Amino acid sequence: MYAPRKKVLWFAITTRIAILILQMIFNVLIPDHQADAFKRPLDAMEKNSFWDRIIHFLFNGLTRWDGEYFLHIARYGYTYENTLAFYPLYPTMIRIVAVIMTKILPLFNIQSAMIIAAILINFVCFVKSAIIFYDLTEHVFQNTVTSYKAAILYCINPASIFFSAIYSESMFAYLTFYTMLGSIEGISNIYFPLALSTLVRSNGIVNIGFPIYFELKKALCNSERLKKQQKHNVLSILWHILKLIKLKTYFTILSILIISLFPFILLQIYNYMKFCTSTFDKTLLPVDILQYATENNLILPGRTDSIWCNASVPLAYSYVQKTYWNVGFFRYYQLKQIPNFILALPILYIMLQCIKEFACEYSDELYLLEFFCSKTKSKSNIKVKKYPLNMFVFIIQGLFLTMFCLFFVHIQVSTRLLASATPLIYWYCALIMSHKCADHIDLHYERNENMYSKWKVFFLSQKHYTLQDKFVLFYFLGYTLVGCLMFSNFLPWT
Which residue pairs, CB below 8 angstroms and at least 24 apart, start in 232-237? Predict the structure, then answer.
């Protein structure tokens, strides 16, 4: 019999294998769409052995869209200005693992080794993120059934293909959930995974809020003076928070900010030095890279006339996103993008509904920003609520990311952005799914026969489904299957 945590581990492994098989089948059966997208320039002189062709046959469906950029950066570095939209930790790890593999297994060329390395990194990161997510949920909800169901749903999340494809979602989810859990538990070196997350995706900076929040909560939760403040007087609460914080807490928060942001700042300096100074020698780049730049009108390092180079704060990311992908405030609100808004609608609805329900449940407590330690109440005064109050900081983070998706990003990207950055969608869906089945599953995390299986879980053997159950499963499994089909053939998806 498998304990819930162990079962989550095996189900995470099972789903990753299933995704790899599905993308291979869809990629073989359906011709690739000729997308107008970046295709990494390949070395024409590089030899392709029988084993390299096998790797191409099995996993080429995972290299689409942004995967082309990550593989290019892993091999050649940041050779074009548009590649600066992709953060360096993931492609750097691909490069390191691939070089080690070519030493151990000289059967593969460097390109094949990088594809294998990327898949292995994602596989490990995803499985570890599923386990950490289970631990995080159990810490927040203090409920095994909710923790188990949320972790199982995470394993079949609507953006599943991106967690296995050569994208940074799995690595980012692992570092994000680790940061969340470590912040709650007060781990002293939490700034390390936090700093790494800022080198994986741009929204990793948002994670800085977690250790800062819990550091403030630790300093203030026992304050009687704070609890006596008038309700809904938010400005007064904030002022008293500032007055009650000890100097030691300020130094701790400052150290978290400095250490966490230091790698991000170094990255901006590196980008500026490489692309905005004339010291870079273009002759160091291979001929294929230079030729591809000429054919596609791409900007090489060493140009000093880019607009972002001359800005007061030279940040390449926002400029590249705006210039090459038309990302900006309300820029995506066009009639032709209605299908993409429909595609993103389910996850945005889930997020907003979860946030709304939490706010309604705790409308009387939110004025304290959850900066207090709840004391045990008598049973007669206890009102059973759907959500625990300590979800507050996750709600704030989820609200910020949802608003950011609605107003700034390409709206269809919301699915994978939110699926890898916030636990709210899994918590909400786990709570609305029916716990009751024929054998009173509400008292256990699984059916008795399922407890002995590595892959068989509640939604595969449930006899009675509510309308909400059907909606969740149709959304999660439907997007997983369609995503594998669309992505592996270079068709537009989330």
Answer: 232/367, 233/367, 234/367, 234/369, 237/367, 237/368, 237/369, 237/371
